[in-house]
Automatic annotation (TrEMBL):
Assigned protein family: Belongs to the malic enzymes family.
Cofactor entry: Mn(2+); Mg(2+)
All copies of domain Malic enzyme N-terminal, residue ranges: 122-302
Listed GO biological process terms: malate metabolic process
Full protein name: Malic enzyme
InterPro entries: Aminoacid_DH-like_N_sf, Malic_enzyme_CS, Malic_N_dom, Malic_N_dom_sf, Malic_NAD-bd, Malic_OxRdtase, NAD(P)-bd_dom_sf
Catalytic site: Y145 (proton donor), K216 (proton acceptor)
Annotated positions binding a divalent metal cation: E287, D288, D311
Transit peptide keyword on record: yes
Subcellular location(s) of the protein: Mitochondrion
CC annotations in GO: mitochondrion
Species for this entry: Liquidambar formosana (Formosan gum)
Residues annotated as domain Malic enzyme NAD-binding: 312-580
């Protein structure tokens, strides 16, 4: 559809909406609809979320599309309209499933039960919910966030009780500009949006992916202190390619294959235009989009909107901080980073994001010129589902292309196109083995045995895939096979390993949660128009510098989650400083750019 036609559609829906609000005062309006039992019309003086939160009137997913339109509910419920019989079936199936699938690998067996209790509190009393979460962040972050949030998404059709957030579906094309006004808050600071196409390492979960947006925003409130009334989780339902969900009669999302190409982009464009029209200062975090869209959408929007992609950019910053920590843990200065040999398993949105950032960081340390950038490339070996990526790879993904090994260079090392991970580790003897493959157990006994040949005095293993059962290896496997001296980090939380001799092998959590809340908060407070590479780099450097020399030498390369509020504050301050330095900051509320400058200790400040 041309931009013009699109605009016409958008503006006609907006005009409809405006007319409706002019002719009928929202609050006092009386509307009728049929109750769940059927026939008698019910009169209601409420609208929007007030209806969904009222047990006398709420029909949940059984509200028909006409009722959703008339009661300003469009977008506040998952798109699939259910019959009351289906609702009961879904509830009963969930009740019976209580103990089954309540566990994600070796994690807490009661995780899902705890999530249900916390979720009920979230629905009843947000202030109390966040107080409980903040006071017990170490215990409950793994429940409301990774790894349990993965289990929640997998079971979402059953767990769904009260809606939270907004749903924009392929069926809502042309309506989004109007729908955004169904959200009751006049001010929204943070949106986390997903299309559900790659939820953690669990694949395409369709509409059920809304859970990840809710979990991330919980951390925005708990770690960054964002007002819970100003966060908005969003699910863009463009269908699903998950065959199981397509056949499930109780699935809450659109039961059609995913939109592709221009059709897909036009939905996301319409969503972005709608939310930035209603809330011009909002920040949109893209989360768990499959790689093929993650990069394209980032390129499409990053210079126009206040947005970032957490999996590409947040993960990259967290990985850089960890990689620099691993260099320091060897007793070497950070500036030795460009000498590290790094094997990366996984060339998706996260893997490529990390590779690009690591290469740039090395290049900066080597003189920040073209030849430095070029030579940094040779420090990386990238293995994906088809093995080692070389220039011989057919139909190579353009994002992976810059990291393809030259064929003669590979053969000098005894490697070839498609070489297995174990062969690569054997030949390269890397300092770092980093996994973002979503393949649980990929760092097998053989791979870890091969890493014993590392030329590093202290090899580092980053098993960053989530949730727990997708981790490339466990810390027990890593420490017991490679040795007590290694550095270990995983994306999902694991317990430290007790060596039984009074010594402990520390398991770091290398998760983007250490950066995204600070990136969002810093952007909000600075009022920066966009989120620049420099702001992201400042966030990563701040996290890298957070750990003391003594801590890194003991193998602690990331802070404990109990200090997440402090880290977030530091990261946010670094982001604000950088935004000011780059002359991007426009200020926040009464704190204009000039006032912000006064607050910082910058020597050079462009607005002074
Ligand atoms: N720790 C964190 O903060 C963090 C952040 C982002 C993503 N992740 C995790 O990283 C994982 C990957 O995310 P993504 O968005 O890049 O996914 P993706 O699906 O885009 O990429 C997965 C990549 O792994 C490769 N792969 C598959 N099987 C492989 C194998 N046997 N050997 C080597 N490579 C293999 C694929 O070819 C692909 O390149 C997910 O589990 C996600 O949860 C963790
Ligand atoms: O969600 C997480 O825990 C980290 C990351 O964003 C992921 O997709 O795995
Ligand atoms: Mg993610």
């Amino acid at each position: 559809m041309s931009n013009f036609t699109n605009q016409m559609r958008l503006s006609s829906s907006l005009i409809k909406r405006l007319k409706r609000s002019l002719t009928t005062p929202m609050v006092m309006q009386t509307r009728s609809f049929t109750t769940t039992e059927g026939h008698r019309p019910s009169m209601v003086h409420k609208r929007s979320l007030d209806i969904l939160h009222d047990p006398w009137f709420n029909k949940g997913t059984a509200f028909s599309m006409t009722e959703r339109d008339r009661l300003d509910l469009r977008g506040l419920l998952p798109p699939n309209v259910m019959s009351s019989e289906q609702q009961i079936e879904r509830f009963m199936a969930d009740l019976k499933r209580l103990e089954v699938q309540a566990r994600d690998g070796p994690s807490d067996p009661y995780a899902l039960a705890k999530w249900r209790i916390l979720n009920r509190l979230h629905d009843r009393n947000e202030t109390m919910y966040y107080k409980v979460l903040i006071a017990n962040i170490e215990e409950y972050a793994p429940i409301v966030y990774t790894p349990t949030v993965g289990l929640v998404c997998q079971n979402y059709s059953g767990l769904f009780r009260r809606p939270r957030g907004m749903y924009f579906s392929a069926e809502d094309r042309g309506e989004m500009m109007s729908m955004v006004y169904n959200w009751p808050a006049d001010q929204v600071d943070m949106i986390v949006v997903t299309d559900g196409s790659r939820i953690l390492g669990l694949g395409d979960l369709g509409v059920q992916g809304i859970g990840i947006a809710i979990g991330k925003l919980d951390l925005y409130v708990a770690a960054a202190g964002i007002n819970p009334q100003r966060v908005l989780p969003v699910m863009i339902d463009v269908g699903t390619n998950n065959e199981k969900l397509l056949k499930d009669p109780l699935y809450l999302g659109l039961q059609e294959h995913r939109l592709e190409g221009e059709e897909y982009i036009s939905v996301i464009d319409e969503f972005m235009e709608a939310v930035f029209t209603r809330w011009p200062h909002v920040i949109v975090q893209f989360e768990d989009f499959q790689s093929k869209w993650a990069f394209k959408l980032l390129q499409r929007y990053r210079d126009t909107y206040r947005m970032f992609n957490d999996d590409v950019q947040g993960t990259a910053g967290v990985a850089i901080a960890g990689l620099l920590g691993a260099v320091r843990a060897q007793g070497r200065p950070m500036i030795d980073f460009p000498k590290q040999k790094i094997v990366v398993a996984g060339a998706g949105s996260a893997g490529i994001g990390v590779l690009n950032a690591a290469r740039k960081t090395m290049a900066r340390m080597l003189g920040n010129n073209e030849s430095a950038f070029d030579s940094a490339r040779s420090q990386f070996w990238v293995v994906d589902a088809k093995g080692l990526i070389t220039e011989e790879r057919e139909n190579i993904d353009p994002d992976a292309q810059p990291f393809a090994r030259k064929v003669n260079e590979a053969s000098r090392q005894g490697l070839r196109e498609g070489a297995s991970l174990v062969e690569v580790v054997q030949q390269v003897k890397p300092d770092v083995l980093l996994g973002l493959s979503a393949v649980g157990g990929l760092f097998s006994k053989e791979v870890l045995e091969a890493l014993k040949g590392s030329t590093s005095t202290r090899p580092a293993i980053f098993a960053m895939s989530n949730p727990t059962k997708n981790a490339e290896c466990t810390p027990e496997e890593a420490f017991s096979i490679v040795g007590d001296n290694i550095i270990f980090a995983s994306g999902s939380p694991f317990k430290d390993v007790d060596f039984g001799n009074g010594l402990i092998g520390h398991c770091n959590q290398g998760n983007n949660m250490y950066l995204f809340p600070g990136i969002g908060l810093g952007t909000l407070l600075s009022g920066s128009r966009i989120i620049s590479d420099g702001m992201l780099q400042a966030a990563a450097e701040c996290l890298a510098a957070y750990m003391t020399e003594e801590e890194v030498l003991k193998g602690f390369i990331y802070p404990s989650i109990s200090s997440i509020r402090d880290i977030t504050k530091e990261v946010a301050a670094a982001v604000v400083r950088e935004a000011i330095e780059e002359d991007l900051a426009e200020g926040y509320r009464e704190m204009d750019a000039r006032e912000l400058c006064k607050l910082t200790q910058l020597r050079v400040c462009p607005c002074m």
